[in-house]
Design goal:
Layout lengths: L1 E8 L2 E8 L10 E7 L9 H11 L3 E5 L17 H15 L5 E11 L1 H12 L3 E7 L4 H7 L5 H18 L4 E3 L5 H6 L5 H10 L12 E3 L3 H5 L7 H4 L4 E6 L7 H11 L3 E7 L6 H4 L1 H18 L1
Parallel strand pairs: 3-4, 3-5, 5-6, 6-9, 9-10
Antiparallel strand pairs: 1-2, 2-4, 7-8
Helix pairs in contact: 1-12, 2-3
């Protein structure tokens, strides 16, 4: 069963989909998982792939569009603010605690790619979250700092100048998450398998969606550069942790990020590496996604 929801978030609302097991009884208390999705994605993409499978295994799952993105409210559009992404999760939990049939004492979180880092960062301090799952988790701060050819401090200087110019012109600048086509990627010399698979997922009929714009508001990049999803995890994130990684180690950094999370966490429960899978194949390749969800369903059943 699929139920569309709106989640109050201060002056705006988040658009959400709640996937319920077919056997759900509104008079009973159901364990539920809140999904935190990859950067640039909308709820109909990767989140829906995992949420629908969890519901088929008896666990309710809520997936939503982040503030400023997809069908959710918030201006300016296309903002990727890691701190707001974390707050979105807590607002989603607020809504679930008043939803009939949902047990507020049995709410977990599942983060995928960048959403994995956001989920972990939120779970450190929102202990209404009782269990944490992470699939190919990324720490966006580490990733963005590593992308800067002259270092993050120099990048921040450039971003400061750009924001000043933006304020003067009144025109917010946007950048691509990915090249829009494989041809653009090849022209830029970006022919590695991870970039190719990312474009094939996000920018073709395979996984593309009209509300997934592939654009990011530039002013948010300074926030990402200063962000550390795993700050104080070793002291604050006491919840049981499940980590699932792609066995083919590429250039996304998610394998290294996931292993670091596993080492930092005070309560690691289960680590799964899916042989042969690449990062973006964990988004929708049925054999890999089903294997991950089978393991996640067992984890949440035991820990929620």
């Amino acid at each position: 069963m699929l139920r569309h929801m709106t989640i109050p978030r201060g002056p705006i609302e988040l658009a959400a989909d709640l996937y319920l097991p077919d056997s759900a009884d509104h008079a009973a208390s159901t364990r539920t998982v809140v999904l935190s999705t990859p950067g640039s994605s909308v709820k109909e993409q990767i989140g829906a792939n995992y949420a629908s499978r969890l519901a088929a295994r008896g666990i309710a799952a809520l997936v939503f569009d982040p503030a400023h993105q997809g069908q959710s409210g918030g201006e300016p559009r296309d903002l990727e603010d890691p701190y707001r992404r974390g707050e979105d999760i807590s607002y989603a939990i607020d809504a679930l605690t008043t939803t009939p049939g949902i047990d507020p004492q049995r709410i977990g979180v599942l983060g995928i790619c960048a959403g994995g880092g956001y989920a972990v960062h939120t779970a450190r301090t929102d202990h209404r979250i009782k269990a944490v799952g992470a699939v190919v988790p990324g720490n966006m701060g580490t990733s963005f700092r590593s992308f800067q050819p002259h270092g993050p401090a120099a990048a921040l200087e450039r971003m400061a100048e750009a924001r000043t110019e933006e304020s003067r012109s009144g025109e917010p600048a946007r950048v691509n998450w990915l090249p829009d086509t494989l041809e653009e990627a090849a022209a830029a010399g970006m022919t590695d398998i991870d970039t190719t698979q990312a474009i094939t997922y996000y920018r073709t009929e395979r996984g593309g969606h009209e509300r997934s714009t592939n654009r990011r508001l530039s002013r948010g990049d300074s926030l990402l550069l200063g962000y550390d999803a795993y700050h104080l995890v070793d002291q604050l994130m006491t919840q049981p942790l499940q980590v699932i990684l792609a066995g083919r180690i590429g250039n996304t950094g998610s394998y290294e990020s996931g292993m670091r999370l596993w080492e930092l966490a005070p309560n690691p429960v289960d680590l799964m590496v899916i042989d042969g899978a690449g990062h973006y194949e964990m988004y929708d390749e049925p054999a890999y996604v089903d294997a991950a969800v089978d393991r996640l369903a067992s984890f949440y059943s035991n820990n929620l």
